[in-house]
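Write out the 3D structure for:
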Amino acid sequence: MTAVAQQFEARFPDRLRLPFTFDPQRLAADLQNLASVGWTRHYVRQNYDGDWSVIPLRAPAGERHPLRMIYSDPGATAFEDTPLLDACPCFREVTQTIRAPLRAVRLMRLTPGSVIKEHEDVVLSFEDGTIRLHIPVVTNDAVDFRLNGERVVLEAGSCWYLRLSDPHSVANRGTEDRVHLVVDAEVNDWVGEVFAGAARGSVTR
């Protein structure tokens, strides 16, 4: 547990809706701005059936190979925005809202009929010092996201912390893509305060 995490001794819930909301139409417009960009298939093939793919908006510094750019390397210490983020003013606004050191920022797409099998992501929790935030860009009512066996309904434009070091899975049973903006960040005092406020049901910005 990091020193910052120790300041907030109570273990946060496995899911927190954070007090930030983004315009779904602007998010979708940014996604459309990248319509000509190719998606890279997720590298952990055993974790899914169908099409789960990624566009990197922030990646380990100096990486140019597509697979290396979408890899959220836990050992990496330096990250940089990719040129693709320049075409996405709303996505950049999201990243600027998060006042913590940013790591990887990616668009992650799950096409209709595709399934991410239940799995756990190592050291990806507040207590481990690295959080992953999900901002749905486009989604549909038939997306079934499960965390610790319980469904989490993620609306377009909302912002969520999900403790993904716990078992989780996703099935897109709809007829449209499900695309999330996924932001990894390091825990700091701001993160701790926002999480504490969200856990109390209050708004902390």
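The mean pLDDT is 92.
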